[in-house]
Amino acid sequence: MNARARRARHGRLALRLALLSVCAWTVIGATPLLAQPASAWTTAWAASVQGPYPVGNVSLPTRLEQLFPSPESGARNQSFRLIVRPDVWGPQARLRLSNALGTRPVTFDDVFVGLQLSGSAVLKGTNTPVLFSGRTSITIAPGADAWSDAVTLHTAGAGTDGRKLAVSLHVVGESGPMTWHAKALTTSYVSFQGSGSTTADEREQAFPASTTSWFFLDAVDMQLPQGTRTIVTLGDSITDGTASTLNGDDRWPDVLSRRLHAQFGDRVSVVNAGIGGNRVVGPLDYAPSKPFAGGPPAGQRLERDVLRLSGVTTVIWLEGINDFGVAANTSVDAVQQAMRDVVTRLHAKGIRIFGATLTSAVGNGTPVDSAARETKRQALNTFIRTSGLFDGVFDFDRATTDPATGAMRDAFIPNSTDGGPGDHLHPNRLGYAAMAGAVALDALMTP
């Protein structure tokens, strides 16, 4: 065989080897050069909905009558710019809009998502249109919600560390009763009724009014590597962040998130499913026609607020103190049984659940009421610690209670939202940090 023939033969062999290598990478799933790591939707932010507006417990006393003169009519031909902080970021996102507590179909159009610059202004070049099944508008039936199409996030070279998303949407016509999350503890922005669509406008002048509640938007997903864990913190106002700093992102789930990211990077996302005033048991007949400020009971909202979120692997549940107040006066046995039911449903989906002990309410309310609630709280905490129901327990009670008095530690009582004296029920930002510090991070990340 001459040199020319040998070179041709070697060329054919090299080509065959290259093709075999490509096939091997395709079949085996090797990653060098050709294959891309698998990704999946992961919930990066959520806010459990309640209502309809104005039923709920807000961050601060606010009067929104100028924006929404009639709760029955709701929003009318006006735009919202909702500010949210994703716990993790990916190259693509999708949004879930909710009409869960509405009584009429509501139509949204001109939905945009971008990076917040400051206030209601969007960072130039990042405001990107969002579609729904390829269309610029969507009508959502009463009691329903809808996911958007995937949208590529544009950061304009700014990066995303510490950034917040600005999600802008326009309500076409009248919305009717509005689904919302009352206690956002985050400032968002609204235009006046009849002002039309201002969502494409990046300037702050397009949204002259503000609110500390979220409307219609209840989840944001990011496209992230498969195996990213979503941890849902399920609870009431103490998880929702009452008495923490307005716009400070220092609720206990926020502090927990920062601890987890410092140790495990972006392998985990923490989302908040707290509602101020929420209960484990009741009200049993919650509906738009029979609203309750605390939203639906935990079991009734579990499907929407936990099971239907993307990539959920773990739940931390802190709840029960509202069940023992004067208004509810629920028995400890009833709360325990409801907890068993919720844990059974989560375990059936392969989701681990950690119980958290209830923090002290000594000094909240009249002495008689406070003592009665304390007796029930102690009994439920014993159940949480010793029943074996949960996959693990985090002792928030021990982290925040003064053993000499049985009340919350003095340093944790003053209200960080308004600088007030506190209510002896809701910890401030220091108390929330102590709670987050009581969580064993390795337990959350162990399969």
Keywords summarizing the entry:
single chain; five-stranded antiparallel β-sheet; Rossmann fold; 447 residues; alpha+beta; 2 domains; globular; disordered N terminus
Q: β content, as a range?
A: 15-25%
The CATH class of the largest domain turns out to be: Alpha Beta
Provide the low-confidence segments as ranges: 1-34
Oligomer designation: single chain
Number of strands: 20
In CATH, the homologous superfamily of the largest domain goes by the name SGNH hydrolase
Distance between the termini: 61 Å
From N to C, what is the helix and strand string?
HEEEEEEEEEEEEEEEEHHEHEHEHEHHH
Instruction: Quickly give the CATH architecture of the largest domain.
Output: 3-Layer(aba) Sandwich
CATH fold call of the largest domain: Rossmann fold
Bulk shape: globular
Helix share, percent: 10-25%
Q: Number of helical runs?
A: 9
| Overall residue-averaged pLDDT value | 92
Number of domains: 2
Radius of gyration: 25 Å
The main β sheet shows up as: 8 strands, antiparallel
- What structural category arises from helix and sheet content? alpha+beta
Describe the structure.
The protein is of the alpha+beta class and about 450 residues long. The protein has helices at about 5-30, 235-240, 250-265, 300-305, 330-350, 365-385, 395-400, 430-435, 440-445, and strands spanning about 40-45, 75-85, 90-100, 105-120, 120, 130, 135-140, 145, 150, 165-175, 180, 190, 210, 215, 215-225, 230-235, 270-275, 310-320, 350-355, 390-395. It folds into 2 domains: about 45-220; about 225-445, Rossmann fold (3-Layer(aba) Sandwich), CATH 3.40.50.1110. The protein has 9 helices and 20 strands. Strands 2, 4, 5, 6, 7, 10, 12 and 13 form an 8-stranded antiparallel beta sheet that branches. It is globular, with a radius of gyration of 25 Å.
